[in-house]
Specification:
The structure is a homodimer of 606-residue chains.
Chain A lengths: L2 H22 L4 E2 L4 E2 L2 E7 L6 H16 L5 E6 H10 L3 H13 L31 E7 L2 E4 L13 E11 L8 E10 L2 H16 L2 H7 L3 E2 L10 E2 L1 H20 L3 E2 L5 E3 H7 L1 H4 L8 E3 L2 E5 L4 H8 L11 E10 L15 E11 L4 H18 L4 E7 L9 H17 L5 E3 L9 E7 L5 E10 L1 H5 L4 E2 L5 E2 L2 E10 H12 L12 E5 L5 H13 L4 E3 L6 H10 L4 E5 L1 H5 L2 E5 L5 E5 H13 L5
Parallel strand pairs in A: 11-15, 17-18, 24-25, 24-26
Antiparallel strand pairs in A: 1-3, 2-3, 3-8, 4-5, 5-6, 7-8, 9-10, 12-14, 13-14, 15-16, 16-23, 17-19, 19-20, 20-23, 21-22, 26-27, 27-28
């Protein structure tokens, strides 16, 4: 079933749900009911607040109607006739839509699009009513339910076999909080029962991997209402993961000829006026702070600061490329509605770098970044990714020659590194072409990952130069790039990707030592000290809980190795190593240590 | 000569200078002229702007007068008589001072204290005019120069043997910028020529070690007017030093049972109202930023954020002590006049930690911090330090019992660690007693170093608890502490302490490789790769400069090891290793590597 056909199925299922609602709640007033990704929704005004119990009833009713193989009957009528019909049916929202069609020839569905963060599929366009010729509109009838709808729909309910109602939410009529709050029911619809159950399984897995829940249960981080939305407090265990990643990141950058720098979190507003951000991205910037009669801004990006470091000396072509890297924490405004755990925040640490190079060096630099990006993704266990090269958009600066040269350089880099890519025509930034990489996680979801952006704008605006072999001042090309994106989002994605079951090199606690009784504390302390001397992260749990409880606790904390130490183990020459999954393996201490150290050394994925 | 006597000498030298100025510039109007640390100054109004040439003339004139063994003649006269005298002398500033004495019985010298950041010695009090009995004031005359002055002074100029005029500066009359700008001449005065020349040598050394100059010539950092005053950009070489210190700091904290955390740079203003900072330290806080109708503050300290992490779970007595450590970058307002390189800035990274413990654990925790602080100071090459225990101030919170207990705990910690200390009575913070450590650098200057502050206030204000053995809610004690202070100031002091000649483990470039000609590039590249594989920081300089020039360049960059690679070295089995100071030592590559690695491993001071 192609996407369009699936969209029709979902839209028809929305009508089916509306028909069931009308049957159970004859007073229902209907808003709109489009198809969305994986399903549909419909908005209603009812005399009562729906409960999960009601959803079951509605679902049952839907099945009953579906089994009757009811027809979706299409009628064309003129606007006056339709208005009469919906007046008779007492449907004020449909009447309002008819008024709009009279006035504008459309119901401006764009303005009443869902406010939920769910992606709306292309088939939503089906619910865009448009005046057909001669002031005619289309009406679809399913049993007693009559809807103003452009269609198309299925012929009958026979094809509707796999659906499930998901949840109830409030939604303002037309997305405007000045309007009445309606009740929205979300549902899933697929062609087959198999597809539906696969999707339900996916949702269940996604829920289990939700980094906000895991962040809490594994004590990795918190976002406190007292502190402020979108601002992350990294707890000790989360900070361990973050530090390991940061150290690894720094070392890899050092190896590849990057130079680390540090810059502050505020700077004069004049810098952001010069850069163009104040004009172009004002809605994402915080209000300036006045210091000694000058305005300062919480930095939304690190670029101007790196330019100032570049400009602190005269640079020659011999110095290029210069690669400044910084784990720079930036602050950008996001509406509170879109904030989401670690993956959408207001303060985040970019793994940022700016490369200053000659235009001849762009390809080689892009190759270096691509290799580093792919190396990073592989090391962190992401096997799949999607790569896109975005080319010149309509509104842009710089000559065609510059664009062609830079675009060719990025293309060359992709081809020489044998990376498969698609071209996103016209999707480049106004200041240059770019490569975006999306990483696919264990559940197949795509996340914004590395990005490489060529920039003609900054060097121009900030008058950045180098001296060429002839002693002439030349503009370098600037490349903005991140390979992880931001520490917050990256670790959020890692948590979901691994469902909290981190590779041994990243996991906050590597070894859990559980003494059976107080008699075994000494032996456990000795072991702990030995492991810690080797740099291993150990939790020697001398609480008075039972061994069974302790093991469950350690398993819930997803600790890779659990060692119970009792009389038996103290007598034996072997440790009983409980691996993830519960298998117990007897090993000598030496064998165990070698195994753990090797896993860390190799950064073994699982 | 005791301090008081030296103060009198310096004050008398100020009068001597005034007499010389009067001789050369008969129109001079005199402001005030106190003794200060190491010397004196005097403020004048003149018809011309003084030049360095004038200073020499004045100095010459001073010597001439001094050699005449002129007497300092003291006269007592009543206010009316004195007013008549200074009217006749046409000295408006002295008349203004006389007016004040008439009105207030004092000239309120405190309000006209020097605005320069120089410390004013106790002898300044000598220049505090006070009405003696029966409206009498004292006048001192030296040759033609007559001054309103309480004295005391030397008997004659005979004793004045060692002085030097230093510099000219502008100074508003009475330090008020609404008043006229006068010209101030600073001078040094000592008892003997030897003491003067020692001090001049000290000043020369201090100038050579100025971290602002070294920061520039070694390309470590910059402070850009475009970015904003007091905000530091760390260049690659400075960032290398900073990263080494940060990593070392983190590892040492980990070893000692601290847990690293990360927190953002803004937070809701409500937190700072709760903490008391908004009321008590408003002048050091930046203006709040409004986000979604709530006010946020650029964080001036990390404490409330660590409290939020502590409070993210219920804590039991079994969990204590909890030690959260963070390299937390904070922002505090400082007047632009007091900003100074890295040592006085507006944005700085505290090496912060907060310990939450029971009141019984305070001593043990303080011992741990003291040991860590002393270990850190020694590792970084500071052999001397001054320790002070500050006790309960007049304005303070908490019961006497709490204060006694905490003060005893800090005392106990100092005594058990055998650290010599003084007691600064009443100098504690309002919320608890504290230990302050000042490190003495190579020139004997004292710098604010580690600090340990016990705090009864925060736990109370934020309702911080733990559950004790009986299941009761108890307030933990909170200890604020830093061991380096701030990365910026600490590295600034390090630069001055070492005059940029860093120990090998800290220095940005450890080995400089200088090929004699192009024929030696390959050999140099090979060596560089070998050294880099071992983690050494190498600069293979393949520029076309002469060997002599290269060596000077590397020496100016204070690189510990310079290796010239030419035909001779390529044939020989030995490297000619040029050490700091210029001594050349032939060594095999193996010997050289072993030496360097050992120095790094041992963190050898020089």
């Amino acid at each position: 079933m192609d996407n369009n056909r699936l969209g029709i199925l979902r839209h028809s299922t929305a009508h089916l749900m509306a028909a069931a609602v009308l049957k159970l709640f004859p007073e229902a007033k209907f808003g709109i009911g489009p198809a969305i990704e994986n399903g549909f929704y419909y908005d209603f005004e009812l005399n009562k607040n729906l409960t999960p119990q009601d959803l079951l009833k509605i679902e049952k009713q839907m099945k009953k109607i579906a089994s009757q193989n009811l027809k979706y009957e299409k009628k064309e009528m003129d606007l006056t006739e339709a208005t009469e019909l919906f007046k008779k049916l007492n449907q004020p929202y449909k009447l309002e839509l008819l008024e709009d069609i009279k006035k504008y020839g459309t119901t401006e569905i764009e303005k009443i699009a869902p406010t939920e963060p769910q992606k709306v599929s292309g088939s939503q366009k089906n619910s865009k009513f448009q005046r057909s010729q001669e002031n005619k509109v289309t009406i679809y009838q399913l049993g007693n339910f009559v809807d103003l709808c452009r269609g198309p729909h299925l012929d009958s309910t026979k094809e509707i076999k796999a659906f499930k109602l998901q949840k109830i939410a409030g939604a303002y009529w037309r997305g405007d909080e000045k309007n009445k709050m309606l009740q929205r029911i979300y549902g899933l619809a697929f062609k087959t029962e198999k597809e539906l159950s696969d999707h339900l399984k996916f949702l269940e897995e996604a829920e289990k991997s939700d980094h906000r829940e895991l962040g809490k249960s594994l004590d990795l981080f918190s976002i406190s209402d007292q502190l402020g939305s979108g601002l992350v407090l990294w707890h000790p265990k989360g900070a361990i993961i973050r530090r390991i990643i940061e150290d690894f990141w720094k070392d890899e950058h050092k190896k590849r000829g990057y130079q680390l720098v540090y810059s502050p979190h505020i700077g004069k507003l004049a810098l952001w006026k010069k850069s163009g951000h104040w004009d172009f991205y004002r809605e994402n910037l915080y209000a300036p702070i006045k210091i000694d009669e000058e305005e300062y801004l919480l930095k939304p990006m690190n670029c101007p600061f790196h330019i100032l470091i570049y400009q602190s000396q005269l640079r020659s072509y011999r110095d290029l490329p210069i690669r400044y890297a910084e784990l720079g924490t930036v602050y950008r405004y996001e509406r509170s509605g879109v904030l989401h755990g670690l993956t959408r925040v207001r303060g985040f640490t970019q793994d940022d770098a700016h490369l200053f190079c000659t235009s001849q060096q762009v390809e080689a630099e892009a190759i270096g970044v691509l290799k580093l990006a792919i190396f990073m993704m592989k090391t962190f266990g992401f096997r799949d990714y999607q790569v896109a090269l975005s080319t010149r958009p309509e509104k842009s600066i710089g000559s065609s020659e510059m664009w062609d040269k830079a675009t060719q350089a990025l293309k060359g880099a992709l081809e020489k590194t044998k990376v498969k890519y698609e071209i996103d025509k016209g999707e480049g930034v106004f200041y240059g072409p770019k490569i975006d990489i999306k990483t696919l996680d264990a559940l197949g979801r795509a996340w914004q990952g590395p990005t490489i952006q060529v920039d003609f704008n900054f060097p121009e605006r900030f008058d950045v130069n180098y001296i060429d072999e002839q002693g002439k001042k030349i503009r370098p090309v600037m490349i903005h790039r991140t390979v992880l994106g931001a520490m917050e989002r990256f670790i959020g994605v890692l948590i979901e990707h691994y469902k909290g079951v981190f590779p041994v090199w990243l996991t906050p606690v590597q070894i859990y030592l559980a003494p059976v009784g107080k008699d075994h504390w000494k032996a456990v302390d000795k072991l702990a000290k030995e492991f810690e001397t080797l740099g291993l992260r150990v939790w020697a749990d001398e609480s008075r809980e039972t061994i069974g409880y302790k093991i469950r606790k350690a398993e819930n904390q997803k600790i890779p190795y659990i060692l119970v130490i009792g009389d038996k183990e103290m007598k034996s020459k072997k440790l009983n190593v409980r691996l993830r999954g519960g298998k117990v393996k007897p090993m000598t201490q030496k064998e165990f240590i070698e195994m753990v150290l090797r896993e860390i050394q190799d950064k073994k994925i699982r």
